[in-house]
Amino acid sequence: MEPDNINLDELGCELHELIARLYPIHRCISGDGVRETLAILNEHVPVEVHEVPSGTQVLDWTVPREWNVRDAYIKDADGRRLVDYRRSNLHVVQYSRPLRRVVSWDELEQHLHTLDEHPDWIPYRTAYYSDTWGFCLSRRQYDELKNRAGRPFEVRIDATLQDGSLTYGEIYLPGESRDEVLISAHVCHPSMANDNLSGLAVAAYLAKHLSTRRRRYSYRFVFAPGTIGAITWLSRNERNVGRVKHGLVLALLGDEGNTTYKRSRRGNAQIDRAVEHVLAHSGSDYSTVDFTPFGYDQRQFCSPGFDLPMGCLMRSANGHFPQYHTSADDLDLVKPASLADSWSKCLSVIELLENNRVYRNLSPKGEPQLGRRGLYELSASRQDGAVLQQAVLWVLNFADGSRTLLEIAERASLGFAVIREAAELLIRHDLLAPCEKTAAQENLSATTPCLHASPSSG
Ligand code: ZN
């Protein structure tokens, strides 16, 4: 699982190119934009597309009618398009009802949304599950309309809102174990780059990478519209979610902010400890926050009836950067280096989970004589040899069949990678053995000492 052969500069550029290609597409919680997006992701890694008909009951919700827009505008009395959907799909409030009318300024004004503090930006607004319509526009456009307030306006939303389906995509990569790592990214936002395209791109490239690797866990990637899509997925997979041992919701991974990790509802799940360990040893600043029932689809996955061990990885958190949910969340906001860094951190977390096993020292009575085995003067052989030397001693002492390597790394305040390397070194010298009988052994519990290991007492 080593990303040694990955050029992160190139990867960052590829991620940015993918985002640039997806950016113009008009996505919503249903409709052709989601299908088009999944079709492009499918060019990188096979995505299974699911369609769930409108009207389907999903948990406490109902799949809504499907919404698609062909065109929309506000014209002045001279026929000029002052607000034009062809220039930005953010102009139409998502799920606005189809409309063609002549309206007065007083009426029109009730349906306009602007951002006063950023006069050139267009806000992003939705009106799911309500029968209304609206336009989002820059403050400058608003002022232009207002200047013509004495005359009528023509408003048109050339859209369809009818029975169809909700679309979501899934990638399943079977591993040695049926235990799953679930990675989810929402797919319902129109032209915004960080929210949600960065999450989709990073997730797709993680899937692409993992598809070529040997996997201990099975991996499931879900690309579903926010809230209703996650609820639909949970509803259709209720019987199997027990297989999810670790999970991450990915969003907002492309801006230049520091990484933010929002813990699972449980707060101390292995995923929480794994992510916090990776971030603590990443060499960059980061922050961690406790779970709250707000924000992305963690809300659904961590609802009390499921309570899946899923955290949420972001850079600047939702609502904590000015471009959030505006037209300024554009291709300049997301940076190749940030995207590659986020991808790399996700992969480090996955590597940790893949290799976080319980081992037993096969020579636990006294320290084994390391010098005889060439394991005593590691500091002479390489620059970080002194750290590896320490790691060897930590692993020998604490690999007593009751602790995972992550717990040993935490106890030693050393990075997981060097603890893992020490373990591999000791295995090669027959001083350490995994407690699992097979790599596929499921539900490994760190708190239950392994009784079936085969120390060299035999
Ligand atoms: Zn959003």
CATH topology of the largest domain, which one?
A: Aminopeptidase
Helix content: 25-40%
Low confidence ranges: 437-448, 451-458
Give the mean pLDDT.
93
Rg over CA atoms: 26 Å
Record field, number of beta strands:
19
What is the count of DSSP helices, taking H or I runs of 4+ residues?
Answer: 13
Strands of the widest sheet, in order across it, are 1-10-12-11-13-16-14-15
Largest β-sheet summary = 8 strands, mixed
- Which CATH class of the largest domain applies here? Alpha Beta
- 3D shape: elongated
Task: Identify every distinct bound molecule in the structure, by name, code or SMILES.
Answer: zinc ion
Structure classification: alpha/beta
- Whole-number total of structural domains: 3
In whole angstroms, how far apart are the ends? Answer: 33 Å
Secondary-structure arrangement, i.e. CATH architecture of the largest domain: 3-Layer(aba) Sandwich
Oligomer, anyone? Answer: single chain
Percentage beta strand: 15-25%
